[in-house]
Amino acid sequence: MATFCMIGKYNKNSLEHASADRTRESKNLIARYQGSIKSMYALLGQSDLIMIVDLPSVEYALKVSISLTKLTGISFT
Predict the structure, then answer these.
(1) What is the maximal distance between C-alpha atoms in the chain?
(2) Which pTM does this prediction carry?
(3) Average per-residue pLDDT in the chain?
(4) Roughly what angle, to the nearest 10 degrees, separates helices 58-72 and 20-32?
(5) Cβ-Cβ contacts under 8 Å for 57 (sequence gap 6 or more)
């Protein structure tokens, strides 16, 4: 497993639809890619969210990033 920092930026739509259910869906999505969330933090400033995740590879990290953006509307770097 490799550890990745996923930095997220909300848009208006993704902020309006924030919920515990969406967070749960996000955790399940990461688990489907054989990963896990080590920690998650809200930020102030240029970025809104950081997730520290364990995933099997860079390929999986890219797939998770794209899938999470589709699911949540949050853009990840």
Answers:
(1) 33
(2) 0.87
(3) 95
(4) 150
(5) 2
